[in-house]
Amino acid sequence: MKHAAFLPRHALQILLDALSGEGYRVVGPRVRDGAILYEELRDVADLPAGWRDEQQPGQYRLERTDTQRSFAWAHGPQGIKPLVFRPRESLWRVHRSADGRMAFSASIPQDPPLAVIGARACDLAALELQDRHFLESIRDPSYAAHRAGLFIVAVHCTHPASTCFCVSTGDGPRAGKGFDLALSELDEGYLIEVGSERGAHIARMLPLQLSSDEQREQAEAEIAHAAALQTRQLPGTNLRDSLFANLDHPRWREVAERCLSCGNCTSVCPTCFCHAEQDLPSLDGQSAEHVRQWDSCFSEGHSTIHGIVIRAETGQRYRQWLTHKLGSWHDQYGRSGCVGCGRCITWCPVGIDLTEEARAICGPNGEGAT
Amino acid sequence: MSKPRIAVHKFSSCDGCQLAFLNAGEDLLTLGALVDIRHFLEAGFAEEGAEVDIAFVEGSISTPDEVERIRRVRANSRHLVTLGACATAGGLQALRNLDDSNEDWKQAIYAQPEFIHTLAHAEPVHAHVKVDFELWGCPVNGRQVLAAVRQLLFGVAPLDERDKVCMECKRQHAVCVMVTQGKPCMGPVTRTGCGALCPRFGRDCYACFGPAENANTAALARRLEGLGLPPVDIARRFLFINSQAPAFREEGLRHYPPGFADD
C-alpha cells in the first residue's frame, strides 16, 4: 500500500461517473431484501452506508450501525461469479427453415462491459479459479465475453463475518492481485491502489491526493485486525489425500441426515462452475435455444450418467462436493477450490459448516485420521 | 397428416390450472394451429368421449361418477397427463383424507347433504388409472405446460423438473427468506417449476409444486422446529396442498397431533 493515493469520501461519485463515462455499466453493493447484493449502481448514496452483516451458520441479518462507511460489511450471497458465469445463459440457437434446413447461430453476449465496485479478496481468488476453468483448457465464449470487459474495483475487507475463513485458505482479507483498482476505506475517504493500466487510466480522472503515513498505517492495521478476527479454519490447505483416504467415513452418512441436498451451498460458492445444458424449443417446433444454467452436484441431473443415477443418496452427493472442492481441485487447478468466503456456511438453510465437516473427516490437522 | 388431438378434462378442482392454456396468449393461437382441441369445456369444446392423443386431466377423483369417468378418459387417450396438484397429489380437498371427516363436513356445509355424493377420500388420478406424466403445481403455469406439450408433440417424454426450488432462487438472485428472515420456507424440499415465484416476492415457499427428488423432509422439519414452529404448523406446511404425495404425507403425519382436525 506504499503507493496508495487518497480519495476524499465525497469524491467516490467521481469514480462511478468516470467508469460510466468510459462505457462501463457499473454494479456495486446495494441493500435489497435484507442482504447486500451487487446491482446497478449510479449513485454513491445507494451504497450500503451504515450497514453491517451479521452472519452465522444458516443465518444472515443486516444491522444498522452508526458508521458512515459504505463497505463495513463482509459480503452478500453472491460474489463476482454471476457477472461472468451467468446463472442462465443462451449458448446457441437453431432455426429450421421452410425447406427443412437447420441454421445454427452462436449467442455471443453483446452487453456493455461491467465495472464491479466492492469486490472482496475471496471473490478475486475465486475469479482467478473460474478463469482457469473457463478460459484455459477450452475457452468458453460466453464467459470470455463477460470477463474481457470486466473492470474490478476491489475493497480490502475490514469486517469479516463469523463464517469467514479466508486467512486459512490464504486468499484474504487483503486483495493482493486481480483488480484494476483497490480501495481501503477510512472514515474520511479511501486509499486507492492501482492494479492495471486500465485502472491507472481511470485513476487519472480522479481528484487524488497524497496519502499520509497515518492513513496508510490505519488501513494496514484494519486489514490485520480483520485477519485476526477470523476464528474458523480448514484443517489444512491440501486435504486431498486425507479426503480420499476417508471415502467410507461414517461422517458422510451423518451429514446426509442434516443436509437438504438443496444446492444452496454450490450456488453461492464463488468457485463452483457446474452447469447443465438444455434445449428450449419454441412451441411451433421451428426453432430452439440451447441454454446453460447453474447446476449442482447435489442435484439428480448432475448425478446421472446415461440414464443411471450414480449418486442417488445425499451422502454421496455431499462427498462428491467436498472431495472435489477440497480434494481433486488440487489435481485439476493446482490448489483447493475453497477461497474461505464461508458463504456455503451462512446460506445453508440448516447451517452445515464445511470447516467442521472437513475437520470431522480429515482430523484436526487434516492428517486423515480414520 | 392429421393434427394430434388433445382434450382437457376437469375433475374435482378449481379450474385454475386450465388457465395455463387460456392465459397463454399468442401461444394459444400457435397451439390451436398445431393440435386439434376436441374437448376443453372451459374453452368451449365439448366432446367428452373423443379419442385423443393427449388428455390433460385437472382435478382429483372425489366422487363415484369421477371414478367411472377417469377410466373412460384413460381408455380414450394415448397419453394421459395430470394437470396440477389436485390431479397429481390430491390437492386441498384431499385434506379430508387425513381424518376421515368427509361425512362431518358434508353435514356441516351443505343445506341438503343428501344430494352430495362424494367418496370418503379425494385421490390423485394415479390412484385410479395409469398416468403417463405428471405436471405438479397449484396452479401449473403456461411455460411448464407448453413445454410438456411441445415435448410430447416431438414424441419424447417431457423433462421431469425435480430439482429443489432453492436452485432456481439462487439463479434468480432471490434472497433466501429462511436465512435472512427465519421464514419457514419449504423450498429445500419442493420441486422447481414455478420460477421461485414466492421467494422472489419475499414470501416463503409453501410447497405447492410437491416434493422434489431426494427431499430430506426430516431435516427441514427439524429446522422448522428450530425456527419456533409448533408441530401442528410443521404438519400444515407439509400437508397443505400435496398431502397425498408420500414424502410430504409421511413427514406431515409425523407432526400431526391427535385431535388436530378438531381445532
Q: What do you see in this structure?
A:
- The complex is a heterodimer of chains A (370) and B (263).
- With 370 residues, chain A is an alpha+beta fold.
- Chain A folds into two domains: 5-229, no CATH class; 240-362, no CATH class.
- Chain A is 32% helix and 24% strand.
- Chain A has helices spanning 12-21, 81-84, 121-136, 141-148, 166-169, 197-203, 213-229, 240-244, 250-258, 264-268, 314-333, 343-346, 354-362; strands spanning 5-8, 25-32, 35-40, 51-56, 59-64, 88-96, 102-106, 114-119, 151-155, 181-186, 189-194, 209-210, 275-281, 287-294, 304-305, 308-309.
- In chain A, helix 9 crosses helix 11.
- The radius of gyration of chain A is 22 Å and the shape is globular.
- With 263 residues, chain B is α/β, with parallel strands linked by helices.
- In chain B, strands 2-1-3-4-5 form a five-stranded parallel beta sheet, with helices on both faces.
- In chain B, helix 11 runs antiparallel to helix 12.
- The radius of gyration of chain B is 19 Å and the shape is globular.
- Chain A binds chain B through residues 32-35, 37, 58-62, 77-78, 82, 87-88, 256-264, 267-268, 278, 280-285, 293-296, 299-301, 312-314, 346-347, 349-350, and chain B through 27, 30-31, 33-34, 146-147, 149-151, 153-154, 159, 162-164, 166-167, 170-176, 178-182, 185, 187-189, 202, 213-214, 216, 218-220, 222-223.
